Amino acid sequence: MIIVSILSDSNALRIILGIPFLLFFPGYTLMAALFTKKEGMSGVERVALSFGLSIAIVPLIGLILNYTPWGIRLEPILYSVALFILITSIIAWLRQISLTESERSAFEFQVKMPGWGGGVQDKILTIALVIVILGLLGTVVYVIATPKIQEAFTEFYILGQEGKAADYPIELNVGDEGRVIVGITNHEGDEIDYRIEVFIDNEKVTEIGSIVLVNGQNIETGVVFVPNKAGQNQKLEFLLYKNNEVEPCMEPLYLWIDVS
After folding, report:
1. Which residues constitute the domain of residue 212?
2. pTM: predicted TM-score of the whole model, two decimal places
């Protein structure tokens, strides 16, 4: 699992190996370390508890990693979960070597092909079951193989001079310079040429462009505006355009400013 996740780009292999790695093995090895004897718990109960414990263990490992310098990233999660599985497996093995083979917890599986000795109804049900299983497998393969089309959108926001959503210049004098930071993030799936226009009470005061961003790129740029008339509750608007369009590509952002 570690080798495939780090070196391979195959999402299908990552999913196939990652599901048991995260959702079964941590709980199963912990169960094996805590309850080494076969008696007292059936195989079905062990399997069910293995899934339940895994769902509880993996988030706890992530929570611990969140407070470490490594953080919640691919390699730390892989190594941490693998280390947990290894340690609990060693503990389970050390506890089980003192038991006889009949006392140790184990699973036994018997697999056989369905026979055709039944009647017509049994054969129809068998064929229907095979068709359903093949359909489910085909659906899983299609979902894995077909990339999901992401929603196309643009992030557009304004920040104060300190880069936070606070301390906006909302009280100014006529002729004073107001400064904000305008941020744009392109999630359109293509290269976009953006343009920003700034209005105060429907009067254009400045324009910034062109800002060319590739998909996934972000920019935060300073914008300076100067009010030229006094008044309370003046509407300072930021309009975003893309690719030389005449209409804004989204609803404008705005602040209410008081000008003395």
Report:
1. 153-259
2. 0.47
